[in-house]
Design brief:
The protein is α+β, with helices and mostly antiparallel strands. 26% of the residues lie in helices and 16% in strands. The chain has one domain. It is built from three helices and six strands; from the N terminus they run ββαββαββα.
């Protein structure tokens, strides 16, 4: 049984069947199960993972552990949490992710306007 960047090939095949692929410049939404936060969930190697992280690993290789509580995060340039298009995904820190969120006006600060 083959593997693709450490993910069994049968899992990779099953995974991509649940992604609505399209042109490289468009989002590829996850069509499988989603959690209450709206982000997808998929079981890989016996544990639940976010589909965008799986998509990143399948196309770019393993995600380094990183430092801090969140470790290395996979960020969306498209700002669409269910997107699995590898062209829209990049690695960063939680701080960089929050800065990107703030700069794009998506950060809910909890303060009244």
């Amino acid at each position: 049984m083959g593997t693709e960047h450490g993910i069994p090939s049968w899992t990779a095949d099953s995974f991509w069947l649940r992604v609505q692929k399209g042109p490289r410049d468009q989002c590829w939404p996850w069509t499988g199960a989603k959690g209450s936060n709206g982000y997808g969930r998929v079981k890989v190697r016996g544990r639940l993972m976010s589909p965008h992280r799986v998509a990143y690993e399948l196309t770019h290789g393993p995600i380094p552990a990183g430092k801090g509580y969140h470790g290395t995060v996979v960020m969306h340039s498209c700002d669409r949490g269910d997107c699995c298009n590898p062209a829209h995904l990049s690695l960063g820190t939680q701080r960089e992710n929050m800065r990107d969120c703030r700069d794009k006006g998506r950060l809910n600060t909890g303060r009244a306007s």
